[in-house]
Design a protein that fits this description.
The structure holds two protein chains of two kinds. Chain A is an all-alpha fold. Chain A is built from twelve helices and two strands. In chain A, a hairpin with a 2-residue loop joins strand 1 (141-143) and strand 2. The longest helix of chain A has 34 residues, at 2-35. The N and C termini of chain A lie far apart (61 Å). Chain B is an all-alpha fold. Chain B contains 17 helices and four strands. Chain B has a two-stranded antiparallel ribbon. Classes of the chains: A mainly alpha, B mainly alpha. At the A-B interface, helix 4, helix 10 and helix 12 of A face helix 8, helix 11, helix 13 and helix 16 of B.
């Protein structure tokens, strides 16, 4: 009986961790759909988001810890949006439409700059979010015999919120309709009066905001350090790829699958190969690439000479 | 046939030769003299810097050729790591001589890297980025796993020496051997570039389907490009191990791969296998060492700056890559060529 509860626990934690990966993956996928750009700097965007939340939270604008952290997240998303505008205008816009290698190297440069800024301002020591022991008590929640760590409650609510807002935006509002039109056919959409340059900025803002939210949860679980940029990169890529590189719904499914595989396989293989849990996402990524490179719902790339 | 002003070549052989004018002869001989006599008039630090540049430069030569074949890889630091760790095992545990270690490391790494050619047939453009990132992380994890019982997970190298002489080399002799190896490998890759093989590799990079229509076997030439670049990565890794004396998995972090592709290849000059790669490597290692030296100068006064040295290096690399991509997409070599063309027939260029 004890075994069964452990399995349920592992599955619950895996799915909840998967929601964070899904949030990172959806920002990645939206950017790919809009700009045809694989953003390898996603980990560093997560890193700077986490540090921004921490820095604003440490100002203690409101004495109550819960309201303080919510306010900090909102302000950090605002600052991240400013960085998004700068990113688009200064780095990506000048090379947009050039070769794939140029775009890749531009995101590499973006990642290096963001990571360097984080190291210079905040150093390399392990930090925690302000008021963390109040918001996320280290003691897990106990539902009967099942233990469930606290930060995952936030990750599940947060990701439901993010996906709800995105779904509403893309299905019901004229803004989301314009963005979908632009990602389908940029030339036709801009001929109908949709401003390409504005939409690209909004795309970057969505990417940065999702990265900031993911950074908040990853920082709450692991502590804020340079290491969470590695975590972000190595989890966002497979999460986006499993569902298909241009399918936002696929990112949700991909993230959940990745979380589940990582935690179940990691927990049960760890007895035989110590430390295998860190390697599981990369192995999943390799396996998906070799077996089904376009993912579950991704568009198959057709090549003509 | 039309040629730009000041070009006086008459045959294909002349156009393809490395040394075309008397000026080239003179500058080559002068460069070789300066490089070979370097240990006599400079300190240990400069000689070590050149050895690091040479071992990374060999890796980046191979990476440059791979990128020219349209197969950009962000996992070359990991491939270098394979060579470095294997070299440590061969030199310290099996007590092999230097030259044998380097060759075996090159061949084994080449065999590992060539396996990537099979998925690369189907996986293209963006997906290749995913593939190489996954490879980088997996190899990094395997290296960490294999060295988990070793304290600090660092593996040492035997002192560089040869069995025929029966003694270990001094730093100066090591430097000369590295220099000779760099010249040999540089000549080889520059020669490959002008053979049919090199042309086929460039053609695959331009448009692989179109090249296949022209009768160039995609799998074969992609595998050859991977094999050459893997061989260079293994050799460079083993040389780097001999230079530092010990290797840890942290030396082969994925950021190093990004730096190698970004600063080494793009900033140096894509397509210019020898000079572009060496220029890029010099910028990459020189900037890092320069910032480190600058910071250690001020570290006593401002303690905050010492812990953040890597941050400044990363920001600088990022800015340099972005600036080069926007301003001069073909790298520093193209900039030098522009200067050369300006001074060719100086007052009346055209």
């Amino acid at each position: 009986m004890e075994e069964v509860f452990r399995i349920i626990e592992v599955i619950m934690i895996g799915l909840s961790a998967g929601t964070i990966y899904a949030v990172m993956g959806v920002g990645f996928v939206l950017l790919y759909r809009l700009l045809r750009l694989v953003n390898i700097a996603v980990g560093d965007m997560v890193l700077i988001g986490a540090y921004l939340v921490m820095a604003v939270g440490e100002l203690w604008l409101v004495p109550d810890p819960v309201i303080n952290i919510i306010l900090a997240v909102i302000i950090a998303c605002g600052i991240a949006s400013i960085i998004a505008v700068l990113t688009d205008r200064l780095l990506i816009r000048p090379v947009y439409g050039q070769s794939v290698l140029t775009l890749i190297m531009m995101t590499v440069a973006l990642g290096m700059i963001l990571r360097g800024i984080c190291i210079v301002i905040w150093g390399t020591t392990l930090r925690t979010l302000p008021g963390q022991h109040v918001i996320w008590p280290p003691r897990p929640i106990e539902i009967g015999p099942i233990k469930y760590p606290y930060p995952y409650v936030w990750s599940v609510t947060g990701s439901i919120l993010v996906f709800g807002v995105l779904l509403y935006m893309f299905r019901k509002t004229i803004f989301g309709f314009a963005m979908r039109a632009l990602s389908l056919d940029p030339e036709a959409a801009s001929a109908h009066g949709i401003s390409m340059s504005k939409m690209y900025i909004y795309g970057w803002i969505i990417a940065y905001v999702t990265a900031t939210l993911a950074g908040l949860i990853l920082g709450a679980i692991n502590g804020i350090n340079i290491i969470i940029s590695d975590l972000g990169l190595s989890r966002a890529l497979p999460a986006a790829l499993i569902g298909g590189l241009d399918s936002p719904g696929g990112a949700l499914v991909g993230g959940l699958i990745l979380g589940l595989i990582e935690h179940t396989l990691g927990t049960y293989l760890n007895m035989f190969i110590p430390g295998v849990r860190e390697a599981v996402p990369y192995l999943v990524l390799l396996a998906v690439l070799i077996v089904k490179p376009y993912g579950l719902w991704g568009t198959v790339r057709i090549e003509r000479v | 046939m039309s040629l730009p002003c000041g070009e006086t070549k008459e045959s294909y052989q002349k156009d393809m030769s490395f040394i075309q004018k008397r000026f080239h002869w003179v500058s080559l001989v002068l460069l070789l003299i300066v490089l070979f006599t370097l240990p006599f008039y400079s300190g240990v630090f400069i000689v070590g810097l050149f050895m690091a540049i040479m071992s990374f430069g060999i890796v980046i030569m191979g990476l440059n050729m791979l990128t020219e074949a349209g197969l950009f890889s962000v996992s070359h630091a990991a491939f270098m790591g394979i060579g470095a760790f294997l070299g440590s095992y061969l030199s310290l545990q099996l007590k092999m001589p230097f030259i044998l270690v380097i060759l075996i490391c090159g061949l084994v790494t080449s065999a590992v890297v060539t396996m990537l050619a099979f998925p690369a047939l189907r996986i293209k453009v963006w997906y290749l980025l995913f593939l190489t990132t996954a490879t980088q992380f997996t190899i990094e994890w395997v290296l960490n796993y294999l060295t988990r019982d070793i304290p600090g997970s660092c593996m040492y190298y035997a002192k560089m020496g040869s069995y025929t002489i029966g003694r270990s080399f001094t730093l100066t002799e090591k430097y000369w051997i590295f220099l000779i190896l760099t010249i040999v490998f540089g000549y080889l890759i520059a020669h490959i570039a002008r053979t049919p093989l090199g042309k086929a590799i460039v053609m695959i990079g331009e448009r692989d389907y179109a090249a296949e229509v022209q009768g160039i076997n995609q799998l074969k030439y992609k595998a050859i490009a991977f094999a050459i670049s893997g061989f260079y990565a293994g050799v460079g890794g083993a040389m780097w191990g001999y230079y530092t004396g010990m290797v840890t998995p942290e030396h082969f972090h994925y950021l190093v791969s990004w730096e190698m592709l970004g600063v080494g290849v793009i900033v140096g000059g894509l397509g210019s296998y020898v000079w572009g790669s060496l220029l890029g490597t010099t910028i990459m290692i020189g900037v890092h060492q320069g910032i480190m030296a600058l910071i250690s100068m001020y570290a006593a006064k401002i303690p905050w700056i010492a812990a953040t040295a890597f941050g400044f290096t990363a920001i600088f690399y990022g800015l340099v890559i972005a600036g080069v991509l926007i301003g001069e997409p073909h790298g520093m070599v193209a900039l030098l060529k522009k200067i050369k063309r300006f001074f060719n027939l100086f007052p009346f260029s055209y």
